Amino acid sequence: MSKFTAHFESQDFPNPVIIDCTASAQVSQMYYEWINKGIHVVTPNKKANSGAFDQYKRIRELQRKSRIHYFYEATVGAGLPIISTLRSLVETGDKIVKVEGVFSGTLSYIFNNFNGEKSFSQIVSEAKASGYTEPDPRDDLSGMDVARKVVILARECGLQLELDDVKVQSLVPEPLQGLTSSDEFLNELPNFDEEMELRRKGAEVSGEVLRYVGVVDVKTNEGRVELQSFPKSNALAQLSGSDNLVSFTTSRYLRQPLIVRGPGAGPEVTAAGVFSDLLRVAFYLGAPS
Ligand SMILES: NC(=O)C1=CN([C@@H]2O[C@H](COP(=O)(O)OP(=O)(O)OC[C@H]3O[C@@H](n4cnc5c(N)ncnc54)[C@H](OP(=O)(O)O)[C@@H]3O)[C@@H](O)[C@H]2O)C=CC1
Ligand SMILES: N[C@@H](CC=O)C(=O)O
């Protein structure tokens, strides 16, 4: 842990909460210790819940048997109520069949704006400047950020999925996969604009648009992340900005899935998601609502 060490003990404060707003796996490895010390944890960081299943299970079991809270609503959909919706479906006895849709604000923004007016690399830079991407945008373009969300949602559904089990279609051009820095990657990306433009035109000639989707299939115990083309009449084709659209097909919502849609990335909505979790901790601890 180079930059960060939590020095305080829980008894120094009446109800300590640590909010981890990094994307660091190292920081997320501290959660067990913090919860064990009586420190509540709130985070938009996906690393703990999409890391090794045993570690995740250890945290969840400790948190369940302690009176310590661990909230991570913003790990999927930023400020949108995705985790809480899924939880309330499961807790009220519904059976989840499938969770699918656009889970990435960055890739939504990119494909919602990739209409022939600007190059692919230009739109990637805009997504980064808008604060939608991960600290390293390759995490978005490689599909790993969506794959992590697929794992998080799958585990909420009761599956024991590991990140490696998710089939991922990466959008990082093969020759750029070995680059060490994200700056180098962004500098090289324009060289592959033509390749992406061909894919876009391929969908366009059939009257379709490209969308990057994630799927948790509970029946087959599978997760996948892929670029698909959709007719313009499809709800996914009508997204705008950084919209996420998450569709829950369940026993209760079988013919007509329950849908949550809205901006799914960016500093404001993410901060709101994290703040809402913090208020929930305070409320559960007895603060007036
Ligand atoms: N941006 C978004 O729309 C959303 C983001 N999230 C999640 O929120 C988290 C943060 O994302 P975002 O705010 O965009 O990323 P940023 O890169 O803007 O912020 C990350 C911050 O974490 C700090 N940091 C990194 N490692 C450490 C460490 N070991 N100790 C202390 N500080 C550290 C960085 O400091 P420094 O700059 O000094 O390196 C930086 O200030 C990620 O986990 C992301 O997945 C979730 C939902 C939406
Ligand atoms: N980079 C992510 C941020 C939220 O998780 C995204 O684009 O969705």
From TrEMBL:
Organism listed in the record: Physcomitrium patens (Spreading-leaved earth moss)
Protein name from the UniProt record: Homoserine dehydrogenase
- In short, the EC number is 1.1.1.3
| Coiled coil ranges | none
Domain Homoserine dehydrogenase catalytic, first and last residues per copy = 81-279
Swiss-Prot/TrEMBL keywords: Amino-acid biosynthesis, Methionine biosynthesis, NADP, Oxidoreductase, Threonine biosynthesis
All copies of the Aspartate/homoserine dehydrogenase NAD-binding domain together span 14-73
Please give the pathway this protein is involved in.
Answer: Amino-acid biosynthesis; L-methionine biosynthesis via de novo pathway; L-homoserine from L-aspartate: step 3/3; Amino-acid biosynthesis; L-threonine biosynthesis; L-threonine from L-aspartate: step 3/5
Which EC class heads this enzyme's classification?
oxidoreductase
